[in-house]
Amino acid sequence: MKKKLFAITCAALICASFAGCGSSTESTSSAGNSAADSSAAGNLSAKTDALKAAVETPEMVVLTKDTVKDILGVDSADVTDFSALNCGNGAYPDAFGIFTAKDADAAKRVEDALKKFVEKRNKDFKDYKPNEMYKLDDSFVETNGTTVVFAICADNSKAKELLK
Fold first, then answer.
1. Are 87 and 117 in contact, with CB atoms under 8 Å apart?
2. Where are the domains of the chain?
């Protein structure tokens, strides 16, 4: 009887842990809630979701307009839309995202903030977890017009392809 109760308890705990590990995606948009806005927001989230599905990552946390400045240094006032994820526990350097800036000047500020973020990750992980440095070796920040993308992950070439 004790073995059966123990097995049921373990099964329930495993199910509960899987339920807690789900991820949600959020994209922010400073514009209204028109169909075009939700379509654009969904498009950015779809790109980061595709990357998360295609590349092995640790548990990732979706950044919001309230957390993107603290984590990545990107001022949400500079962007009209974005989707970005960051390693949830700080043990790994993984982070990636796509931003639509308000204008060219804002895109430059977003790009600069993301480059500083990547530089800091390089410094932080060099001695902390040198076996994770391969993710930073070919990490990137790229700007195309008012779109800025970046990635630090196990397959940055795949990230470039999916975030375009």
1. no
2. 26-163
Quickly count: other Cβ atoms within 10 Å of residue 131's Cβ: 7
Q: Give the Cα separation of 117 and 97 in Å (integer).
A: 12
Q: Could you report how far apart the first and last alpha carbons of the chain are, in Å?
A: 57
Write the CA distances from 136 to 61, 91, 131, integer angstroms: 19, 14, 10
Q: Which of 28, 13, 107 is nearest to 62 (CA)?
A: 28
Identity of the amino acid at 30: S
Tokens at 77, concatenated: 């006032």
Q: 38-60 pLDDT, tens per residue?
A: 445 579 999 999 999 999 999 99
CA dihedral over 36, 140, 129, 73, signed as positive or negative: negative
Both tokens of residue 74? 């990107």
Residue 133 per-residue DSSP state: T
Return the bridge partners of 61, or none: 86
Say yes or no to pLDDT of 19 above 50: no
Q: What b/e string do you get for 4-25 counting C-beta neighbours within 10 Å, with b at 16 or more?
A: eeeeeeeeeeeeeeeeeeeeeb
| Runs of H (alpha helix) within the chain | 2-20, 35-54, 68-72, 104-128, 134-137, 156-163
Pair of tokens at residue 153: 């992950």
pTM, entire model:
0.75
